[in-house]
Design brief:
Elements lengths: L2 E5 L3 E7 L2 E8 L1 H11 L3 E9 L2 H12 L2 E9 L6 E6 L5 E6 L19 E5 L6 H17 L2 E5 L10 H13 L3 E5 H8 L4 H10 L5 E4 L5 E4 L4 E4 L12 H15 L12 H19 L8 H8 L8
Helix pairs in contact: 1-7, 7-8
């Protein structure tokens, strides 16, 4: 069974609407994707670090409950957990305030040895963090050499723009080691001041990755490969919350890749009809998460895909 390694930070999310806290739950981009994949029965690991405090225990227990391994999750004694406050506007679209982890002592993440045909999903602040970047790059280089498939989702938020010039070389290196770069229009705007899918693709290709997925909410999904560019429409919905939409798009992408038996060596010649099925599954996953306050797919959706074989009908 192929292993999936989700590299990044775990967070505790608190959602606000109309000036009041309405929901709270474990979150963070890689956690959201990992929990969805765990619920689907995939062999998935979270690779990262978090505080060994009450919130950290809630997060770790939640991962285990959802069949996500915490083998590579470092716990810092005496630290304070990361928090994310998400403020939903009248369209249920969030703006964020982040509270960083506070650690006494060195930052250290245990990176796995990724084997042939495994999948790595990485991104967010962990992917540009100076203290761990060298170890991350060594992990990714070994993964590529061993024949793993690597997906990079930068999740670069407005709060990080002030450090963009300091970390942009890290971003370029991350792109160069990835088989697929997937990001939102906001990610590419914040990172590169790219105002269109075409301009973002030019930058990604320049740094060595030829498969790019550019999501733009209701304006659709742009897929670029070495051979073609295709735009996919997204169904109109009334979202409850869009907090985990992009993360679950990534989870759907990976799930479809596994179900279709696609490996890193296949990507250069992958037929556009297969890509169409993959992107449609990813969109399905994102939509399901938008219909509740949860950051992960619901049980009925899991049944639809696993028991009813919905992926075969896309």
């Amino acid at each position: 069974m192929r292993k999936i390694y989700c590299i990044g930070e775990t967070v505790y999310d608190i959602l606000f609407q109309g000036g009041k806290a309405i929901e709270s739950r474990p979150g963070g981009p890689v956690l959201n994707a990992a929990v969805t994949l765990g619920r689907l029965g995939e062999k998935v690991y979270v690779v990262g670090d978090q505080a060994d405090d009450a919130i950290g225990h809630i997060i770790a227990d939640f991962l285990v409950e959802n069949r996500v391994s915490t083998k590579y999750l470092t716990l810092y004694s005496g630290a304070k957990s990361r928090m994310l406050l998400a403020f939903l506007n009248e369209f249920n679209e969030p703006s964020y305030s982040f509270y960083k982890i506070r650690v006494d002592g060195p930052v250290k993440i245990m990176f796995p040895e990724v084997k042939k045909d495994d999948i790595v999903l990485f991104g967010s602040f962990t992917s540009i963090k100076k203290e761990v970047h060298s170890d991350l790059i060594n992990c990714l280089k070994t993964a590529r050499e061993n024949g793993a498939l690597i997906v990079y989702d930068p999740n670069f938020r407005p709060v990080h723009i002030k450090i963009r010039d300091q970390i942009i070389d890290f971003v370029h290196e991350n792109i160069s080691l990835s088989h697929i770069v997937k990001g939102s229009n906001e990610d590419f705007q914040n990172l590169f001041e790219a105002n269109s899918a075409i301009s973002a693709k030019e930058i990604i290709s320049k740094h060595g990755c030829h498969n790019m997925i550019y999501t733009a909410n209701k304006y659709g999904v742009n897929l670029f490969t070495g051979d073609f560019h295709k735009i996919f429409d997204v169904p109109r919905i009334d979202p409850v919350s869009t907090v985990g939409a992009g993360d679950n798009f990534s989870a759907g992408l990976i799930y479809a890749i596994i179900q279709e038996n696609i490996y890193a060596s296949d990507l250069e010649t992958l037929d556009h009809n297969v890509w169409r099925k993959i992107i449609r599954v990813a969109i399905d996953f994102a939509i399901n998460v938008c219909l509740s306050y949860d950051n992960y797919i619901c049980d009925d959706f899991v049944t639809d895909y696993i028991v009813n074989g919905r992926i075969k009908e896309c």
